[in-house]
TrEMBL record, chain A:
GO terms for cellular component: cytoplasmic exosome (RNase complex); nuclear exosome (RNase complex); nucleolus. The gene is EXOSC7. PANTHER family: EXOSOME COMPLEX COMPONENT RRP42, EXOSOME COMPLEX EXONUCLEASE RIBOSOMAL RNA PROCESSING PROTEIN. Residues 32-166, 197-261 form the Exoribonuclease phosphorolytic domain. It holds the Pfam family RNase_PH. The keyword Cytoplasm applies. InterPro entries: ExoRNase_PH_dom1 (IPR001247), ExoRNase_PH_dom2 (IPR015847), ExoRNase_PH_dom2_sf (IPR036345), Exosome_comp_Rrp42_subfam (IPR050590), PNPase/RNase_PH_dom_sf (IPR027408), Ribosomal_Su5_D2-typ_SF (IPR020568). This is Exosome component 7. The keyword Protein biosynthesis does not apply. GO terms for biological process: exonucleolytic trimming to generate mature 3'-end of 5.8S rRNA from tricistronic rRNA transcript (SSU-rRNA, 5.8S rRNA, LSU-rRNA); nuclear mRNA surveillance; nuclear polyadenylation-dependent rRNA catabolic process; rRNA catabolic process; TRAMP-dependent tRNA surveillance pathway; U1 snRNA 3'-end processing; U4 snRNA 3'-end processing; U5 snRNA 3'-end processing. Component of the RNA exosome core complex (Exo-9), composed of EXOSC1, EXOSC2, EXOSC3, EXOSC4, EXOSC5, EXOSC6, EXOSC7, EXOSC8 and EXOSC9; within the complex interacts with EXOSC2 and EXOSC4. The catalytically inactive RNA exosome core complex (Exo-9) associates with the catalytic subunit EXOSC10/RRP6. Exo-9 may associate with DIS3 to form the nucleolar exosome complex, or DIS3L to form the cytoplasmic exosome complex. Exo-9 is formed by a hexameric base ring consisting of the heterodimers EXOSC4-EXOSC9, EXOSC5-EXOSC8 and EXOSC6-EXOSC7, and a cap ring consisting of EXOSC1, EXOSC2 and EXOSC3.
TrEMBL record, chain B:
GO terms for molecular function: exonuclease activity. Residues 967-976 have a biased composition (Polar residues). The keyword Transcription regulation does not apply. It comes from Apteryx mantelli (North Island brown kiwi). This is Exosome complex exonuclease RRP44. Keywords: Exonuclease, Exosome, Hydrolase, Nuclease, Nucleus, RNA-binding, rRNA processing. The keyword Nucleotidyltransferase does not apply. InterPro entries: Dis3_CSD2, NA-bd_OB-fold, PIN-like_dom_sf, PIN_dom, RNase_II/R, RNase_II/R_CS, RNR_Ribonuclease, Rrp44_CSD1. Its main location: nucleus. It holds the Pfam family Rrp44_S1. Residues 494-824 form the RNB domain.
């Protein structure tokens, strides 16, 4: 992963600051950086979003394609994740450099979304055992400025919120052969309910305290972080420790509590922004990549 | 997906500098998004960038607001147009899509001018009907019409986006209304002394209501056309499209509903329905066959019987058919039925007729039978024919009887029935509702008086799809400039053969001489024989307009008194014609032969010749026969004649067939061009002499181009007929105690030769005529696309057409191939593209077939003219075919063929007994068999101008109980049509 090299004095400065609940950029320990989210940025996807968190810049595209349901879940659709670490983000990603990280993030996303309640997968079924929608969630890392997971989860949630799946009808004739008919009204589509889609809150242990939304510099000072995914109601769906250090159980509980609290407010403000954007409809001036 | 994201990312990375530009152009760029399903079943979201502009001109000539004046005529500053009492002021018209699609005939009238065609409309038309699209484009291109196509979809102020809950049709309707509104506001700004209005024409009730709500002047096409004060007759040309809703309210339902296309496609996929081309029967309006597409072995040909099962399909439509259960299968009937009921809604009568079909069905003859469940594609075209005026006075609805018997009668509405009666007119079908016995249509064009030679010729050319317009300027521009002479450059790849004693032999009056011959003795004692063919490919260069036009025409069409040239006259009758005593370019095929006519050497070369004499067959024959003449030409002819005889014998020994079909020639009155006499063509020795060498040249060339281009040679094949085709011939011969062997062409030829009866000398000719009917059609094909090259009739393993490039396009291609093969000319890409060649062959085969039909129709028409002057005659005739209720006879004297019916409406039916084994037909106590000699009375039945036809009445043998001449029991309609497949000129 992208990282910075800090001198001991710099590290000490950061650690001592955190101790006093004052971070280098002026935030408190539980404060997020300013986040920017825009949806519908890639026109030929079913749904897309771009999230910027400080210098971290993530683009997510969701593409709905027709596929066959998995054998064990014949009446459900499913999600596929793919993460591409662009060499634009950091030169280390060049060639196959970003592959390992990409796989790691993708696997984490699978775990986060493995909880049944996250997305109503049954609504993605077209006809059991034969056709379902497969949502290909493609994540592209444009810039790494620390706290990748949180930024990615925000972008994924926004993109899923933005996703419009065309409505199809299954026509069945006497013979039992099925034909799928596509509606010719582009507005005639289904939306996903994203209320239960979790967001990731990464808590980095710095000194005796923990911070959310660590910058690259702060990440360099942290030996271990706890990654938890929280739904808007504060339910925890997945937890993972990252980093080479260890955490004692007590601080884990502490961090979980913080994570839930922060996660809830993160969800609220994200949902507010998304609803606001949605209400603007087509009149919204798109910012896109040139803004 | 991923690829796209990466691409977008790349834009993002380099996007910093583009900031300014993007915001400035932002309002002018939108994107159009739509979903579509791919073949594989995936749903794809397609996004297209869509640029808007503010510099698209409105097209009005007086407009100073729009900068650039459009190319072309545009709309007139003061639209004079036709005076209308609905909108007396100057106005432009703006039709919607359906109006353009359905009322194109009326829009093409010169009265309709100054029409704005929106891009939205044009695109929809293009998607829905290619022919109409082409006609609209032509009108836009025509400066006289002042049609203007306005690019509203790219105009900043008229572009709209599809809204929620709006389907694409609604959106397009709205786009049209927005454009009309814009135009009206725009034209107001012009500050002209007179305000031009834009009139919106639509037949869609909802759309019109919405337009009126929005303050747009809108009329239906009918309202507008009726309001035109000067042109009341235009109303007739309105297509009568009934609203879907109206249909159910009135009248009985005659036909089952057609299934929607989606259902049909599903059904075809799952195999419940079969898709095929609908071919109506010429002889029986209640029967049709459907040729199933694809290569399924069984159920290739499905019979459809009865009005309900035919279910409104029209000849040549692509339909979906459902097979009936096996116990409902029927046999093709041999009844001849014509739809002539006057009472159009008389369904009982139909059922009775349908029962006639079902009666006496032979169990062995049962064939797959089905019913039409839906129409996949209509193939309606404008039809020629005549009006059958309604018997009710003042009626506006009349039936129209097409000249082609396979097309049902069409109901049209007209107020000028009195003027149209007795005229040949063109009518287009608009629709066929379920409650109507006949399709509805509208009048398109009047061709002229029925029976006039010009009109009838026009009709038969139109009916046979023969392109006969004069050559366009574009085509003529590729003709060589006169005076033309042979230049140095022309001589580069040519041999100078001007010193050779070449001569041509053709029928009298021939101006397009495409072949010439020579024969001379060489020093080594062998003979040198040359066939010289006009070098048309020298003048027609690949790919230019002249070439394209010739390729489209495919062949020259010879009618009785008219020739429709494939190439312009300058070429056909002058520069390419190998006339005597002028230098002409030729493509020569030169053989060295010994006196046994064995080819020792073959050589092809482009050349220059100077024919010493253009002879007719008779003149050539005379020279050969008169011992006193010993000039070079005559010696050459004698040599050729001698070799030809040997060649012919060899060919016949190989199994080539000598077939016969009655061919007639008319002697025309030089003043009126009416036929005054009729004689069957006579064949002289010299005919066969020329023919032999042409065959030889064709075979030699075929071999050469095939050796050189095994994949791209254009060849001609004649497939062997399936053995069952010969059944009728074998049966017929058997009835005369003769045996015809059909296992091979050779056996057939030999048994035909032996089939002589001293008491009945004409029998052999009859047998040969019958054999001709058993044959398959010879076709052009591309050697790379086929592996059966055999020419059955000529008993040659390979064959092509090389010798008549002036009148056949196939020969031009063969010339080009041969020229490339011998290095005399360069090649071009299309020449070595077998798919392009295969397409070309398809067109040539079609044109040849149609030309043949047109030719026969022309003969039939002239036969009628002949009998008109000749009056009634009694002639000997032979029975050619026996049908269930009729016999088909041939009158050798006129080469005329006709049907004698034994049943007549409103008369007691004679007792008929049909035996399909022999086959024979017993009427009362008289039995008719094939080849029986009868005597018939022939006359032109002009009592009904509409159905002018030749009546044939049986004179001998008399049928007991019927007083023949006074009260004819037999009605005949005649056709001089040697083949069943042929189109009829007149009904």
């Amino acid at each position: 992963m992208a990282s910075v090299v800090l001198s001991e004095a710099e590290k000490l400065y950061i650690v001592h600051g955190v101790q006093e609940d004052l971070r280098v950029d002026g935030r408190g320990c539980e404060d997020y950086r300013c986040a920017e989210v825009e949806t519908d940025v890639v026109s030929n996807t079913s749904g897309s979003a771009r999230a910027k968190l400080g210098h971290t810049d993530i683009l997510v595209g969701v593409k709905a394609e027709m596929g066959t349901p998995k054998l064990e879940k014949p009446d459900e659709g499913y999600l596929e994740f793919f993460v591409d670490c662009s060499a634009n983000a950091t030169p280390e990603f060049e060639g196959r450099g970003g592959e390992e990280l990409g796989t790691e993030i993708a696997n984490t996303l699978y775990r986060i979304f493995s909880s049944e309640s996250c997305v109503d997968l049954k609504s993605l079924c077209i006809n059991p055992r034969e056709h379902c929608w497969v949502l290909y969630v493609d994540v592209l890392l444009l810039e790494c400025g620390g706290n990748l997971f949180d930024a990615i989860s925000i972008a994924v949630k926004a993109a899923l919120f933005n996703t419009r799946i065309p409505k199809v009808r299954v026509l069945e004739d006497e013979e039992g052969s099925k034909e799928i008919e596509l509606s010719d009204d582009p507005y005639d589509c289904i939306r996903l309910n994203v209320d239960e889609v979790p967001c990731v809150v990464t808590l980095s242990k710095i000194g005796y305290r923990h911070v959310v939304d660590a910058t690259l510099q702060e990440e360099a000072c942290s030996l271990a972080s706890l990654l938890i995914s929280v739904t808007s109601k504060g339910a925890l769906t997945c937890m993972k420790k990252v980093g080479k250090g260890s955490l004692d159980p007590e601080s884990i509980f502490e961090m979980m509590e913080t994570g839930k609290r922060v996660g809830k407010s993160l969800h609220t403000s994200l949902q507010k922004i998304l609803d606001e954007e949605e209400s603007l409809g087509t009149t919204r001036q798109k910012v896109g990549f040139l803004g | 997906m991923l690829g796209n994201v990466v691409r977008v990312a790349a834009v993002a990375a380099s996007g910093g500098g583009g900031r300014l530009g993007s915001s400035a152009a932002g309002a002018m760029l939108t994107s159009r998004t739509f979903l579509k399903r791919t073949r594989a079943g995936a749903v794809v979201k397609v996004v297209r960038e869509h640029y808007l502009r503010d510099d698209i001109p409105c097209g009005a000539a007086a407009c100073r607001l729009c900068g650039a004046r459009p190319a072309g005529a545009g709309l007139e500053a003061r639209p004079a147009g036709a005076a209308s009492h609905l909108c007396p002021g100057p106005h432009y018209l703006l039709p919607d899509t359906n109006l353009l699609l359905h009322q194109i005939d009326i829009l093409e009238d010169p009265v309709i001018k100054n029409v704005i065609v929106l891009q939205t409309v044009l695109q929809e038309v293009r998607n829905r009907s290619a022919p109409v699209y082409k006609r609209v484009r032509d009108m836009i291109a025509n400066p006289e019409k002042h049609f203007y196509s306005f690019t509203n979809e790219h105009h900043r102020e008229t572009y709209i986006e599809q809204e929620q809950g709006e389907n694409s049709n609604d959106r397009n309707d709205r786009a049209i209304r927005v454009a009309v509104k814009w135009y009206n506001e725009h034209l107001k700004k012009m500050k002209n002394e007179e305000n031009i209005q834009v009139i919106f024409l639509t037949n869609d009730r909802n759309n019109k209501e919405k337009a009126l709500e929005e303050g747009i002047t809108a009329y239906t096409c009918e309202e507008y056309i009726k309001s035109l004060m000067a042109n009341p007759d235009l109303v007739d040309r309105l297509a009568c499209i009934s609203d879907e809703g109206k249909e159910i309210e009135s009248g009985k339902i005659f036909f089952p509903e057609h299934l929607p296309l989606s259902k049909l496609q599903q059904g075809i996929k799952s195999g419940i329905y079969l898709q095929g081309t609908y071919r109506a029967s010429r002889d029986n309006y209640l029967e049709a066959t459907v040729w199933v597409h694809g290569d399924a072995e069984e159920n290739k040909e499905i019979i459809i019987q009865g009005l309900k099962h035919l279910n409104r399909a029209v000849h040549e439509d692509i339909v979906a058919v459902e097979l009936l259960a096996k116990d409902e299968w029927v046999a093709p009937s041999s009844v001849v039925l014509q739809d002539d009921s006057q009472n159009e809604d008389d369904i009982e009568n139909e059922e009775e007729k349908e029962n006639i079909l079902k009666a006496s069905v032979n169990k062995n003859m049962l064939r797959p039978t089905g019913k039409v469940v839906g129409i996949i594609k209509r193939n309606w075209r404008p039809f020629c024919g005549m009006l059958s005026k309604s018997q009710i006075k003042e009626a506006r609805r009349h039936l129209f009887t097409p000249a082609d018997r396979r097309i049902p009668r069409i109901r049209i509405e007209t107020r000028q029935a009195d003027t149209l009666e007795g005229q040949r007119i063109i009518v287009a079908i608009d629709g066929w509702p379920r409650n109507s016995r006949y399709p509805n249509g509208h009048f398109v064009k009047n061709l002229g008086n029925a029976g006039d030679k010009e009109t009838e010729t026009e009709v038969l050319l139109l009916e046979h799809d023969v392109p006969h317009q004069p050559f366009s300027q574009a085509v003529l521009s590729f003709l060589p400039k006169m005076p033309w002479s042979i230049t140095e450059k022309d001589m580069k790849y040519r041999e100078d053969l001007r010193q050779l004693c070449v001569c041509s032999v053709d029928p009298p009056g021939c101006t397009d001489i495409d072949d010439a011959l020579h024969c001379r003795e060489l020093e080594n004692g062998n003979l040198e024989v040359g066939v010289h063919i006009a070098d048309v490919s020298h003048f027609i260069r690949p790919g230019n307009a002249l070439d394209e036009e010739s390729a489209k025409r495919g062949t020259t069409v010879y009618l009785c008194e008219k020739r429709i040239d494939m190439v312009p006259e300058l070429l056909s009758s002058n520069l390419c014609s190998l006339r005597s005593n002028v230098d002409r370019l030729a493509f020569s095929c030169i053989w060295e032969m010994n006196h046994k006519a064995e080819i020792l050497k073959t050589r092809f070369t482009k050349s220059v010749i100077n024919s010493k004499a253009s002879l007719t067959y008779a003149e050539a024959q005379m020279r050969i026969d008169s011992a006193g003449m010993n000039d070079d030409v005559t010696t050459s002819l004698r040599g050729l004649n001698k070799l030809a005889k040997i060649l012919k014998k060899k060919r016949i020994d190989n199994g080539a067939l000598t077939l016969s079909s009655p061919e007639v020639r008319f002697h025309m009155d030089s003043e009126t061009h009416d036929p005054i006499d009729l004689q069957t063509k006579e064949l002289k020795e010299t005919n066969s002499m020329v023919e032999e060498f042409m065959l030889l040249a064709n075979i030699s060339v075929a071999q050469k181009i095939y050796d050189e281009f095994s994949e791209f040679a254009l060849l001609r094949k004649h497939p062997a007929p399936p053995p069952s085709n010969y059944d009728i011939l074998v049966k017929a011969a058997k009835s005369k105690n003769l045996e015809i062997k059909t296992d091979s062409a050779k056996a057939l030829a030999e048994s035909l030769d032996k089939a002589e009866s001293p008491a009945f000398p004409y029998l052999n000719t009859l047998l040969r005529i019958l054999t001709t009917r058993c044959m398959m059609q010879a076709v052009y094909f591309c050697s790379g696309m086929d592996n059966d090259f055999h020419h059955y009739g000529l008993a040659s393993p390979i064959y092509t057409h090389f010798t008549s490039p002036i009148r056949r396009y196939a020969d031009i291609i063969v010339h080009r191939l041969l020229a490339v093969a011998i290095g005399a000319d360069s090649t071009y890409p299309e020449l070595t593209d077998k798919h392009k060649l295969a397409d070309l062959c398809k067109n040539l085969n079609y044109r040849h077939k149609m030309a043949q039909y047109a030719q026969r129709a022309s003969v039939a028409f002239h036969t009628q003219l002949f009998f008109k002057t000749k009056g009634e005659v009694n002639e000997d005739a032979y029975i050619l075919f026996v049908r269930k209720n009729a016999i088909v006879v041939l009158i050798p004297k006129y080469g005329l063929e006709g049907t004698v019916f034994f049943e007549e409406k409103d008369k007691t039916k004679p007792r008929l007994d049909y035996n399909s084994e022999v086959p024979s037909l017993t009427v009362e106590d008289t039995t008719f068999r094939i080849f029986d000699k009868v005597k018939v009375n022939i006359m032109l039945d002009a009592s009904n101008i509409q159905h002018q036809k030749i009546r044939m009445v049986l004179v001998e043998p008399k049928i007991p109980g019927k007083d023949v001449p006074a009260n004819p029991t037999t009605e005949a309609s005649v056709s001089n049509e040697p083949e069943k497949k042929k189109k009829k000129l007149q009904k």
